[in-house]
Amino acid sequence: MNPILICRDCDTVYRAIPLRRGDVALCRRCDAVLARYFGSNVDTGLALVCAAAIFFVIANLTPILSIDIAGIETRANIWFAVRSLEHGWISVAALGLAFTTFLIPALQIALLFWVLMFARIGHRPPGFAPIMKLLHRTRPWSMTEVFLLGALVAIVKLANWVPITAGPGIWAIAALTAVLALLGRCDPESWWSIAPAVKV
Amino acid sequence: MTALKRSFDLGLVLCRTCGLAVSRASLGMDLSCPRCRGRVAHRTPLSTEMTLAWLIAGIVFYIPANLLPVMHTSGLLGDADSTILGGILEFWHSGDWDIALLIFVASVAVPFTKFIAIGLLLLTVRKNSRWQQHQRTVLYRIVEFIGYWSMLDVIVVALTSALMQFQVLGTAEPRPGIAFFCAVVVATMLSALSFDPRLIWDQRV
User: How far apart are the C-alpha atoms of A62 and A73, rounded to whole Å?
Assistant: First the structure.
């Protein structure tokens, strides 16, 4: 563990104390979260990442929303939504949507899996530092939960107009949101602590 | 209670990438963090300048995002272009006041609040203000947290267009307003990410 903690929001320095389960250390000056209890739980992390990967695959292979008119079914999922924004120069929005709802969540799941797999077998993951940096940089840009809310709004918007139903994909997105939120609580900074524990 | 010391007084510096407390004396010429090799700095370089630049970009994009249509629908009832505000009013008049409110908050109120909040943070930091430091730090955290919810309308338009392609009852297509909207979200997020909240607590004596 870090013997010294520095508050990200106000730069106050603290000496770290061991935390028990459920403990959260707050900054005395600005109330920022300095540290959470982290059970060095590579296993828990790995389980959550595997769950996230499964939900991500389901969310992308099954329809999230579908419309059935006279036996003709139109389905939509994340990728179809991205493709429908490909429209001349509006495609920059397609790019934005592709990154935030598809590429970045997929990348985060893959990278965390890589890091935790190696940590599990007691090796320092190849490319550990650059991967952790990439995870840190991409963190604010993952928007799975916004996509879930967007799908719900789209249902209400179209329901007066066409027969629309939610597919299994929407449950997968909801589960993915929950799992990613749990993984987010194990903040990336605490993942750094698994590195000294494994052989370099 | 012992006095709260800040990193500079103790010869330390925080690596914002990995959270390590680095002693300034041990930093090499390249100022890189011994753990993650990221660049370490006492305060984020050019923080206020970058924050202001992205804030201005966000405000500029906000105008066409609201004035230009975001979606074009054509069907049995004729063709129509709809703007964000138009869509909100439509929900409101059809009795879905809750959805109208949700979209209003995510698409109109959140970006606007961010402009005001980031503007206020920049102004008070520039003035070296000691006013409400704790509240301003909380404001910064709120801005960071609400940042990406404005992407909601981009997703709704994308899903609607995806479902309403080649439909007998009508079709929907995206329009330029939605690209500007996406740009507002990206610009305001970059603005908030560029801001170094520690500046709120830095006062030259």
Answer: 13
